[in-house]
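_Full entry_
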Amino acid sequence: MAVAVVFLGKLADLSGAAEASLPGPLDWAGLLEALPPSLADEVRGERVRVALNGELLAEKTALRAADGSEIALLPPVSGG
């Protein structure tokens, strides 16, 4: 099985896709390693939030995604 990674907002633009499928299980270090370097640098930023199966993580380094899980990467929201 795999872990679905959903890229929202500008992260989708940087990744070139709205979603990716990565081998699971996946932790924070594994996620960063699997992403292209420029995208990983952006995701490391303090303002990017991480949700696992619809629940925001208080600390993204605590990420532990099992096979079949969904990780959503949420960039800061701008509005007007």
